[in-house]
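Fold sample X.
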Amino acid sequence: MKGEITLSHCKIDHPLEDVQRKLESQKDFLPADLYKRCEKFLTQPRSQSLLNELFHLLKKYDLASTEEKENRNQQLNKLV
């Protein structure tokens, strides 16, 4: 399906600092409560796979369609 995120195929590990920067760059586009939950989520040690998943859900969030944002919001809510 077009626009679907395939996390299992990503070969890049995203360090915590990169994920934090990506979250900050999308702050103005995320629902405020979801941004705060993501921010809190990153204050605890997380596995590399969770960091990668969060990064990819945030990647180009600002460019996503309304439908895609809703889908990502659901996935983000499950994650955090």
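Fold sample Y, listed below.
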Amino acid sequence: MLTRVAAAAALSLVPVAVTAVPAQAAYSCSVTTPSKVSVTSPYRALTATYSAGCLRYAESAAWSVIHPTQGSFDFIYYDGSSSTQTMDWYDWNPIGTYTVRPEGAYDYNYNDMTQNTRKMTVKIGARQSISTSRSGRYVTVKGTSTRYSRTSYPSGFRAWPGTKVALRQKTCSSCSWTWVKSGTTDRYGRVTLKAYASTTRYWQLATVDTSTTWGRASTSARR
């Protein structure tokens, strides 16, 4: 009996290794906003969508919508009441690339949550029309380029003069577009381009993106 007691006492003096419990990693709460915004009307609604991490764990989360030179223009706030938020966007908001910047997020135990950062580029929207005609082995393609005007009254689409327009063609509906030639619109936004085509093709006119305006492709025309 004394031998057992002595053995137990000896064991009690041996240090026992304690396994550390790892700290729980911070939950994540993210928001998705449009990466490209085309201004085509005095007002439009933009949708911000919260991630599953927000819906499952977040008590609250916030992001600011920041213009690079003009400062804050909107605020996104998650309070658990909805999976999305609508941002009111007006055509007088400045164009440019906005940063959706995290301002803090907390889980149901008030621990910090990680957040994401988004970029949202806002430019003026454009339109492109197309019409075609054939004479023998040549196809004439005409179009009018317009873009949204925020300064005219009433606001709306106006001629886009002096812009470059590319003529594209493809031989089948599932084929890729290939460049044919380019032209520049006149003061009324009109352009006319002529191309050789001995067989029927699909045709398209397209403007390119500029620093202020999103380019736009027309519908396809078969001729």
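Sample Y note: The first strand starts at residue 28 and ends at 29.
Also: Confidence is low (pLDDT under 50) at residues 1-14, 16-23.
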